[in-house]
Design goal:
The structure holds 3 protein chains of 3 kinds.
Chain A: H1 4-22, H2 25-53, E1 56-59, E2 70-73, H3 75-102, H4 108-127, H5 131-150, H6 156-186, H7 191-201, H8 205-222, H9 230-237, H10 240-265, H11 267-274, H12 277-297, H13 302-323, H14 326-357, H15 368-371, H16 373-387, H17 393-407, H18 411-437, H19 451-469, H20 472-487
Antiparallel strand pairs in A: 1-2
Helix pairs in contact in A: 1-2, 1-4, 2-3, 2-4, 3-4, 3-10, 3-14, 3-19, 4-5, 4-10, 5-6, 6-7, 6-8, 6-9, 8-10, 9-10, 9-13, 10-11, 10-13, 10-14, 12-13, 12-18, 13-14, 13-18, 14-16, 14-17, 14-19, 14-20, 16-18, 16-19, 17-18, 17-19
Chain B: H1 7-25, H2 29-51, H3 71-102, H4 107-121
Helix pairs in contact in B: 1-2, 2-3
Chain C: H1 3-23, H2 28-52, E1 61-67, E2 70-74, H3 78-105, H4 110-129, H5 133-151, H6 157-189, H7 206-219, H8 231-234, H9 240-267, H10 269-274, H11 277-298, H12 302-322, H13 326-357, H14 368-371, H15 373-387, H16 393-407, H17 411-437, H18 454-472, H19 475-484
Antiparallel strand pairs in C: 1-2
The chains are: A mainly alpha, B mainly alpha, C mainly alpha.
Amino acid sequence: MEHLPVLVVIIPLLTVPLCVLLDHPRLAWLAALASSWLSFAAAVGLVLQVSDTGPISYLLGSWEAPWGIEYRIDVLASYVLLIVTAMAALVLFAARESVRKDIPEARISRFYAAFMLAFAGLAGIVATGDAFNVFVFLEISSLATYALISMGKDRRALSAAFNYLVMGTIGATFILIGIGFLYMMTGTLNMADLAARLPEVADTRTVRAGFAFLAVGIGLKLALFPLHLWLPNAYAYAPCSVTAFLAATATKVAVYLLLRFMLQIFGLDFSLVLMPLDTLLLVLGLIGILSASMVAVYQGNIKRMFAYSSVAQIGYMVLGVGLATTTGITSAILHLFNHALMKGALFLALGGIAYRIGSTTIQDFSGLGRTMPWTMAGIVLGGLSLIGIPSTVGFISKWYLVLATLEEGLWPVALLVLIGSILAVVYIWKLVEAAYFGTPEGNPEIKEAPLSMLVPMWALVGANIYFGIHTDLSVGLASRAAAVLTGGAG
Amino acid sequence: MELPGLYNYWVVVFLMMAGFYVVISQGNLVKKLVGLGLFQASVFILYITVGKVSGGAAPIAVEGITSYSNPLPHVLILTAIVVGVATTAVGLALVVRIYEAYGSVEEDEIHAQDLVEDDISEDPPFTESEVGKQ
Amino acid sequence: MSELQLLTWMPLVPLLATAGVIATDKSPNVREAVTIIAGVILFALVVTLAANIDWDNPTTLVLAEPLPGLRLAFTPEPLGLLFALVASFLWPITTIYSIGYMRSHKEENQTRFYAAFAVSIAAVMGIALSANMLTLFLFYEILTLSTYPLVAHAGNDKARRAGRVYLGILIGTSVGFLLLAMIWTWHVAGTLTFTQGGVFSDEVSPVVLSVLLALYVFGTGKAAVMPFHRWLPAAMVAPTPVSALLHAVAVVKAGVFTILKVSVYIFGIDTIADLAVSDWLVGIAALTIVLASAIALRKDNFKARLAYSTVSQLSYITMGAMLGIAAGAIGGGLHIAMHAFGKITLFFCAGAVFVTAHKSKISELNGIGRRMPWTMGAFAIGAVSMIGVPPFAGFISKWYLVGGALQTEQWIAVGAIVISTLLNAAYFMPIVYAAFFKEEDPQHSHGEHGEAPLPIVLALTVTALATGLIFFFPGVPLTLVDQMVGG
């Protein structure tokens, strides 16, 4: 049990060569699936262990921190790991059919290898307690992600992947520079050690420059408005199972990095008082919510529409962080979890539709309410959650976020947040109208998505409702994590 | 420290800006990758410079030497170089495939082809007038 | 059955009916029988609950507790029971009517129609029983969503456009204002539970309360206070049974019911009286009453005229709630019931004329009373009740409303009621007159026809009779609303 922190990362990482060596579509899938569920089990174990005994520190190769690399799992990390591993497990469960259709057979085993590599990288970013290790894992997951995106059927996937590669590399290099500046001033790379040593040297230009580089770098990975340009195309043209996985995890991990670096390493006082990060995040978050929602309304490709909606949802999380209060940060962390559930369900459903009709443009949705009733019902429920109808997770997120803004007396912000929800109604309803009241053109022989895709999707839809009513787990963990983040700095 | 003493840092800044500029201004995808490589290389130099202690020897414990360069940044940057190489490799692989798919590595030509495709495959964006007014 | 069981079954029965309707898709007779039986059972349940309830300690059924202290829960409450009684009584009657209407009109997708209808009724039960604002909001949104397929039922461009307006305004206002008001209330008061006398402490500044009250009133788009009333006329593209039960009774009453609940149990009548903003809101409600009546006067489309009449009548209730006096709230509460019977009768008649004579314009109705005596007779009764002439239901609630307005010396309110009464007469009476006393216009004749199909006549006769009976036996509603304002 004491090896859980590293197992979460190692299991998927070891599956990568396994998948390549097996070189058999079905076996590779089975290996990936099994290891993602094992990893998920490890994450569950970590959550339990952390709630039991507090933060876990794991020393790689038994080298003492801060010299050796330390894996450190606290409430926040265990929570994000839970999201990442759970989404990987569910998405892989659904992936088999759609991957068989999207990707040439000879490449399937390598697809799973890349998938597991991306997964291992994301898990590693969260698990590690070493700043430079973050960069390495970030690049591992990013490189794998570029490859995954480029496997989309449409050739535009290639240029989307290339653009993401350029912007992602710039972002990662900025993070590298930032970490370098911090190392210059403190001589350490261990996060806990950095947090302890930074206050002495906080008031230097080097640390501030490092902070700025890190903020921009993480902002790029986060797809924070206006650094979000890579995201819509990357999500729209990637294979559906990749989009589902990325939308549910990649940006979440970036938000995790934001919280980890800005709130814990630099500390609330430095990030939000000395540097005007809170105002910046607040404003950019708001603009992101409104502008991306507005753009989403006009998208004809539904995958792209949900991609823009993701940019808007990132705005909600960033806004929560920008409020810089315990409730605000709770809302951001909570939304990490809730948004993963919503978008996971929605993109999996889209995967089912793309599997059956080979397209995700709005015209092709006509009449799907009748031909694919379960998939569409899932989209409607996921959409309602996105809008924030009570008894869904979206409502709980919105509740905390609006409550946080009102606590700060920022009622115009609260109003704007809710206007964002109304825009979500507009773009979701475009879809519903087409699916239920549109007259189908062409092929009426469309069948419901295969069961192996419906089951994980409905598991997520069910989770959207279950965690909208029973919030003990999500709100409990989120508020504890937020308390640690804000309490540490007073 | 005097300006010449910061020579390495000036190189870093110059390389970084040059690389960044190439990435932004060049429409040719291969040139973009070159710029990206330059950009990353500048950071490698930054790290290496940080680790150098003037007058310090290589970090091998030898009788009589008391000042060593810091080996850690150098080792770190080995990793980063590997990452950089991998990035370039993936990037070039993508460029090859883009060339296969579009017959060009010029950004504007690719974009133009995509636009043509858009016109055929997608109708003008759905417009919404009534909803959202409130 | 214990109270707890009754509370569980009240929303569950219509939901089961939904499942039954979907399961019996293939055989329309069974499908409609399921709906009617569910309606009768539901009414029996509500009556049992109303008869046996112990007002001093009502039972609470907690469904879930999503956030600490914030529950989804049901508690029976007098006004809610009145609302539930009205809705559950009219549901089976409307179903009977629907059978006649939908079949003569050969509508498609009837299973979806009956299923969505049953879900709407379940949502109404949820609203009526809700123990706090969160529960109410949940079912309020479910009601919006479940009525959307009914509004867009026809599926053509016009219906879809109307559906967008419907959803845009109702969800827009509720998410934009009502939700904001709710969270703000939670932030200020720490509770959303409906409490006699209100939840706010004395320290809360009147400015905040004023903003909150305005947010609640405008956020409840279903109450159709201007300028958020356009969804109601838009919703008239729906089949007439929907307009009758949902857009004259269930949905719109859910809106004003929310406003009444908020003013009585979140703010408290006394707090409302102290707030300056309530005078403004009375003014806006009064404006809505008069303007909507004036618009109704100019509408030639039968259902549009009725819709604007509804907009106007709804604001009576909003105005009653904003008067800040017990009589106003009582009048508002009564009007929920009284207006329901009158207006549903009028819609039934409009639908009957439409399916039988294929006429939807008022100017074509000359002489129709001789062909359809029952229908137009019922229409006359409904119209007279709308105007507020004894011995019909509308008189009672108007009496209380005028009384409340006089007591608080809100002359605007008094004036609005008087003017609107005149306008009511001006837009309803010519229809009755033309139907019975003018000669039939040959150019508008669409062939021979007689009275509407039997189920339709049956339904509209029952509601017209109820309009009269309730004047003579107002005991049940009066006791209930008296109970609401604290006996």
